[in-house]
Amino acid sequence: MLKKTYRVVGLLLLLAALLLPPMGARAEMYVEAYLGGVFPSSQSFSYSATPTNFYTYNVNAPGKYDPAVIGGLKLGTWFVKEGFLGFNYPDWMKYLGFFLDFSYHRLNLRRQQATYSEVFAGLANTGQLNYSADGSIATLAFMFAGRYGFFPDSEVPFGRLQPYVAVGPALCFISQRPRFSFSTFSGPFLTDDEDLSSKTNTAVALAVEAGLRYMALKNVSIDASFKYRYAATSFDYTVNPGGNGFFVATHDIKMDSTLQLFSFQLGAAYHF
What is the pTM of this model? Predict the structure, then answer.
């Protein structure tokens, strides 16, 4: 799935390059590389299954994620009067722009204690298990931005210091590989530790960003930004949790979770 994502990003970058206006008509486009840290919010989640008509179980986990390093690329433009793709925008549109933002980072659930409950033939039972997961997330965001300029000079007429805000939809390509082992157990069905296969899912997300760009040179800027992403995702797994005698069964479970991702980035951009 990630290979396909990289192909999509590459095609978008190539298309943008082919559509660049002549160098004589400065369109104020830029390409930026950035690094930073991402801090996912803890999001409790649960999954449940009904393997037979007389047995059900439910697992609840706190959903504590590890911080991670985030890296990415931006390709954007501001709608200046000189024109992008030959358009003669009105002067007030120089405050508006658009950029593509592709980022990648790990999305690991740290080892944590979860609880489970089961009902077998009308008898209820509870216990604890250790839960963790390895994962990653690649995000392609389509961001609509607004900016303002301070400290203009002859080299950068719009202003050397440019705070901006941006918002837009995003596609998140998320992978997860859960693992759990039992701490305490006294029931008839859930007996085996599980190392589930990795699954990948695509989710539509909301992305919001606020940043401060400083034009160090006419064509080079430094960008510090804060980014927030929100996405709801769901994964389907096949589980063979063991059991005793005829209680052994392979069945499907669905794991639903909500992601809230907070990140800080520092980048450098080239403007052309």
Answer: 0.80
